[in-house]
Amino acid sequence: MTRDPRADDTPRSGGEDRQRARSPSRRRLLALLALAPVPPASMVTAARLGLCHDPIPQLFGQFEALVAAYERALARVDRLEAALVARLGHSRVRLPTPPGDPGLYAAEAYTIERHLPPGPRARRLKRRLCQRRRSWEAAAEACGLIEAQWHEATVARAVRAVGAVLMAQTATSLAGVRLKLVVLLALYAPGGAGDAAEPWRGLHGLLADLAGPIADHERD
Fold first, then answer.
1. 166-214 pLDDT, tens per residue?
2. In Å, how far are 30, 39, 80, 98 from 211, measured between CA atoms?
3. Could you tell me the CA-to-CA distances from 79 to 8, 83, 120, 138, 155 in Å, in that order?
4. Cα distance between residue 174 and residue 209, in whole Å
5. Are 37 and 200 within 8 A, CB to CB?
6. Domain ranges of the chain
């Protein structure tokens, strides 16, 4: 959803449990993999690199599949949510502002309390907000948005769970080390400008440094 630049809280439908910040996109995953690419390996090369005994590549396959599933779940939520907003508007109320003011919105009762003194106007806005939220939640349930949000949250938890299992394993190959580093950065690096700060900049550099040793193993 888009947010009014002066809004205090982003409107959300009931039952929403988004954790997108720690659920990497497939685009981010592919960008990280590109920093230290591994050429397609034959079984002989895979055995030489230790991939046959390394648990990391198989776990990474599960992790990558879950990331793709998460993106599909997220896209479904976004489609349903956009359609609902187009039909009903956001689950929020506009607060009183001077004429010509861009506008301030409240999606929670505490926002109304923060901007208006106790009295009839505040109570009226709270009642209107409750009515809008009930209408929104009923419509969200009917169109499948609530179920889609729960599914998205479930897949997001699965992504992080498999990532945690992968990180807890011991890599026995350079390719395994590379994949562990990819998962670490995909799950925990802030992204954008935040990646330029330490330790993330150094970890990205380390991932790129692995390209040479992995390529040398492939040639041997």
1. 999 999 888 888 889 989 988 888 878 888 889 989 988 888 888 767 6
2. 15, 10, 42, 60
3. 24, 6, 38, 17, 17
4. 11
5. no
6. 20-34+61-173
